[in-house]
Amino acid sequence: MSDLKPSDAKQLRDVLAWAAAESVPLEIVAGGTKSGLGRPQRPARKLDVSGLSGGIEYEPEELVLTCGAATPMRDILLLLEQRAQMLAFEPPDFGALYGLAPGGGTIGGSLAANLAGPRRIKMGSARDHFLGFSGVSGRGEEFKAGGRVVKNVTGYDLPKLVAGSMGTLAVVDRVTVKVMPAASKTRTVLVFGLAPAKAVTAMADALNSPWEVSGAAYLPAIAAKRSGVDHVAGAGTSVTAIRVEGTAVSVAARCEALRGSLGALGPVEELHSMRSVLLWREVRDVATLLPAADTALWRVSVAPTQGPTVAAVVPDADWFLDWGGGLVWLSVPDMGDASATAIRASFGEGHATLMRASAGTRTRLSVFEPPAVAVAALNRGVKAQFDPRGILNPGRMYEGI
Amino acid sequence: MLTMPAPDQAVLSRRERIVADLRAIVPGEGVIDALEERRAFESDGLAIYRAVPMVVVLPSTVEQVAAVLRYCREGNIRVVPRGAGTGLSGGALPLEDGVLLGMAKFNKVLEVDYTNRCARVQPGVTNLGITQAVQHAGFYYAPDPSSQIACTIGGNVAENSGGVHCLKYGLTTNNVLGVELVTMAGEVVRLGGKHLDAGGYDLLGVVVGSEGLLGVVTEVTVRLLRRPETARAVLVGFPTLEDGGNCVAQIIAEGIIPGGIEMMDKPAIHAAEAFVNAGYPLDVESLLIVELDGPRAEVDDLIAAVDRIARENKAVYSRISESEDERLRFWAGRKSAFPAVGRISPDYMCMDGTIPRKKLAEVLRGISEIAARHGVGVANVFHAGDGNLHPLILFDANKDGDLLAAEKCGADILRLCVEVGGVLTGEHGVGIEKRDLMPAMFDEDDLATQMRLKCAFDPDALLNPGKVFPQLHRCAEMGRMRVHKGQVPFPDLPRF
Predict the structure, then answer these.
(1) B388-395 and B347-350 as β-strands: parallel, antiparallel, unpaired?
(2) CATH number where A223 lies
C-alpha cells in the first residue's frame, strides 16, 4: 500500500484522525536512519513525515531554534556553526552504525530517540534541550506543549515525555530546542595503559575537578586500535580520554592542570583541535570503534562505577566506555539471547538497550529495558491516554505500547 | 475571584472516623487534628489564599505514605502534598475536605556518592541542606531558588525550581537523576537513579514540575557539581533599559554564558540600595550584575570581555569585583530586593513570567502602563540571561480594592508575557495563582492532553485537585474518542 505523506500540520492531523477512527497502525518515518532501533514492526501503513521540514526560525541571541521536526540535522548543525553555536547534547550520527550513509537523520528523530553524545555528562541529553513542540496525538488531536523560551515551568513538561518515546505517543510537526555557544577550542588529554577500574577512578577524579571536563571515555586496546586518530590507534594499549572545551587561554590552563594530576597514573599525551574533534566524533558515533554489523550491540547506562563490571560480564565481548564509565557500548555475538540476561543482571539501577541486532533477535528480546511492574502499568496508562487505539509505532518500544 | 473545588460533604461528615483511621496508619504526633494546629498549615508562600485542611498528616516512612494514599483513594479523600510551604503560586494551598500530607519528617541525607557525583536525599531536606552536606568536599547542588534556606528538595522537584544560575546550570529537572514516588494508588515506583536518562518513557521528566498532581516524592537522587575554582562579578549601569538588554544580548551572542546575569530597574535599584547600601549607582535606569564562574584563567579572560561589551553598549557605570567580599556585596542588594521592596510598600506580589529577551524594553514599558492603569506601583528584577522576569507589584492590602487591582495587574502582565512569545511562569509554577490564566497560553486540546497525563497517574483526580488546571474534567469523559470508524474520510494527500 502507498505511504501516507502529509506536507503540513493540517494534513498530519487529517491522517491521524482517519487512522485513529479506522484503527490503522502506522509506522512513522522521516530520515529512516533509526529503523533498526526498536522491536521490528508490521504496521499496516507507513507514515512518511519527511515533508514536515524547514521553516527554521533561529534566534542566536535568544538561544532558541524552532523548525519542522523533519528538518535534516545536518542543515541545523551547519546553520548553528555559522553563528558559533551548537546543540550542546552532541547528537550522535548513527548512520554508519546501521550501515547507512552519515548525515541522514532529522532533529525530530534525534529527539524522539533522546540520544546524546559524550557531552551528556556536562550539558545534558536531548531531553534537556527540548523546549517545546506542536504535534498530533494518536487521538488525531493537534496540541502543543512547552514554550519557545529557555526557562518555562508552565504545565507538565511534555517535551520530556515525548523525548525518547520513539514516536509512540504523538507525531511532532514542529520543535523548539535550546542552543548554546560552541567552544572556540577543544583539547583532549590521553592517559595510556590504565586498567578499566583504574580508568574509571581517573575519569571520576577529572570530572570532580574544577576543570569542567566535557568528555571522559575509556577505550580498551582493541577499540583504541580501530581509531582513525594516530596517537590513539598507535597506543598499543588502553586509552583514557579526557576532553576540555572553552576559550584558548582557559583550555590551555585546564589541560596543563589535568596533565599534572593524570600524569601520575601513566604516560600522557595531548590532542589538539582536529585530532580531538575526530576522536570524540568516533566516541559519539560508535561505529568505527566496534566491530561492524553482524554483532548485537548494547548501550547500557549505569552509575559510572558500575561500567567496568557491566563490560566484563560477557567474556571476549568488544566494548568501550563513555560518560566517565556510565555508558557502556558492548558488542556481543548475535545469537541466543545476545547475553541480555547476563547484561541486565550485572547492574542495579540503570538500563540496557539493544541498539542493533538482527530482526529475529529484536523480536525475541526486550530491546528496551523491561520496566518494573508498577512502572510498566504507568507506561501502559500513558500510552492509552495519548494513543488509545495503538496506531503510533505500536510495539516498537514494548509489546502493547 | 478564585474558586476551589467544592468540599465533599460526604468526606467531611466522616471526619472523625478518617482522623482515627489515619492515626492507625501514622501513630503518635503524626496526625494533627486540633484546629489551632491545623491553622499553621493554612497557606504557603502565596499567603493571600488560605484554607484550613481537614486534617494534617506528617508521615515518617514510605510505607506510611503509601498506606495513607491507598486509604485516601479507597475513601475518595483528596490529598494535598506539602514540602516547606515556601512556594509562591499556591501549589500547597490546603483543601477544606482534604488531607494535607506534610513531608517535613523526611529530612535525612541518605547517601553521598562523590565518585558517581550524586546524592540520595529525602524530600524534606532543604535545598541549601544538600549543599551544606557536601561543601566540605568542594561540591554543591546547583539550582538555588531564593528561598533555598527553607525550601525543600521535594518541593523543588514538584515546582521544577530555578534560581539565578539556571542559564548555565539548568533548573531542577536538569539536576535530578531519580526519584522514588508513591502514586495515588499507593504504589511505590522508582524512576531513574544514579545513571543517566530513562530506559523507556521519561516519567521522571514529567514528575519534575508536576506540582504535586502526579504522585508524592519520597526520595530524590540529585546531581552534585564541583564548586567552580573562582567566581567574579561585574556591576554595570546603563542610561536606558534598552542598553542593558542589548548588552545581555551581545554577551550571549559572543558566546559567553555567565553563571548569572541579573537586571534591576530603577525602582528596584533604589529600594535595594536604601535597604543594604550595596554601593549601587542611583542615577542609572538599569543595573546588571554579571557573574562569571569557572576556572580562574577563563573567568579573568571573560570578565574583561564582558566589561568591554558593557562599554560598547553605553554603560555609564562599571565595576569589577576585586575580592570575594566585593562580589558578595554586589549580590547583597539583588538578593534582598524582595524584602527591600517590602519596606517601601505595605504589600507586594511577585510575578514570574518569561519573555524572549529581545522584548524586554517593550515588556517593561507595557508593565508600567498596565500598573498605571490599575493604580499600583511596580519594580522589576529580571533573570536577564534566561528572560525570566519578576515584576514586583506594590499595593496596600488594607486599602479597599487594592489587592484586586494588584491581582488584575499581575494577570495583565502575564498575558503580555504570553503575547510577546513568552510563558506564564518561568520558575514559580502555576498552582492556583496562574491556574485561570492557563487558557491564555494553551487551548482546550493542549490542556486536555496534559490532563490526560494526570489520568494515567491519578484517575480519580484526588491528588492536589484545583491546582494548575482551570477546570476539572472526569478522566472517563476525557478518555472517550471523538471519532468512530467510517466517520473520517481517507485524507486527501499526495501518494507515493
Answers:
(1) antiparallel
(2) 3.30.70.2190
Residue A152 at interface with chain B, using a CB cutoff of 8 Å: yes
Does residue A387 share a domain with residue A334? no
Look at phi and psi of residue B186 and say left if phi exceeds 0, alpha if psi is from -120 to 50, else beta: left
> Domain residues for A360?
295-364
Provide, rounded to the nearest whole percent, the portion of chain B with pLDDT above 90: 90
**Strand spans (E) along B16-138:** 31-32, 55-57, 78-82, 98-102, 109-113, 118-121
Q: Identify whether residues A12 and A39 lie together within a single domain.
A: yes
Contact B198 A142 (CB under 8 A): no
**At A158, which CATH number?**
3.30.465.10
Q: Do A53 and A149 share a domain, yes or no?
A: yes
What is d(CA A305, CA A311) in angstroms, rounded to the nearest whole number?
Answer: 11
Which tens digits make up the pLDDT trace of B261-302? 999 999 999 999 999 999 999 999 999 999 999 999 999 999
- Chain B residues with CB inside 8 Å of A207's CB? 117, 226
Record: contact A11-B295, CB cut-off 8 A: no
Based on the domain organization, do A252 and A336 belong to the same domain? no
Count CA within 13 A, CB hemisphere, residue A304. 27
Q: Which of A285, A316, A348 is the last residue of a domain?
A: A285
- Structural element, H or E, at residue A255: helix A248-262
Last residue of a domain, one of A215, A250, A285: A285
Tracing cell 537523576 back to the chain, one arrives at B177
Residues A222 and A249 in one domain: yes
- How many CB atoms are located within 10 Å of the residue A38 CB? 22
Residue A152 within any structural domain of the chain:
yes
What is the β-pairing status of strands A239-246 and B286-294?
Answer: unpaired
CA-based max dimension of chain A: 67
Query: Are the CB atoms for A354 and A297 separated by under 8 Å?
Result: yes
Do residues A359 and A375 share a domain? Answer: no
Residue B314 predicted with pLDDT over 90: yes
Are the beta carbons of B107 and B122 closer than 8 angstroms?
yes
For a pLDDT cut of 90, what percent of chain A falls above it? 97
How many Å apart are CA B417 and CA B391, to the nearest integer?
11
Clarify whether residues A177 and A192 are in a common domain: no
Q: A209 in a domain, yes or no?
A: yes
Compute the distance between CA of residue B49 and CA of residue B130 in angstroms, rounded to an integer. Answer: 30
Position A290 in a domain: no
Q: Which residues in B lie closer than 8 A to residue A326 (C-beta atoms)?
A: 116, 195-196
Residue A243 in domain: yes
pTM for the model stands at 0.97
The helix or strand, by DSSP H or E, that contains position B204, with its residue range, turns out to be helix B203-207
Q: Measure CB to CB from residue B496 to each of A2, A59, A163 and give the nearest one.
A: A2
**Is A74 exposed, middle or buried, given 0-12, 13-18 or 19+ CB atoms closer than 10 A?**
middle
Are B416 and B383 contacting, i.e. CB atoms less than 8 angstroms apart?
no
Written as nine digits, the cell of A397 is 518500544
Same domain, A269 and A157: no
Number of domains in chain A: 3
Among residues 334-353 of chain A, which lie with CB inside 8 Å of chain B? 348-353
Whether residue B1 has pLDDT greater than 70: no
Angle at the Cα of B158 (from B153 to B160), degrees rounded to 5?
Answer: 80
CB-based contacts of A42, cutoff 8 Å, min separation 6: none
Q: Is A385 an 8 Å CB contact of chain B?
A: yes
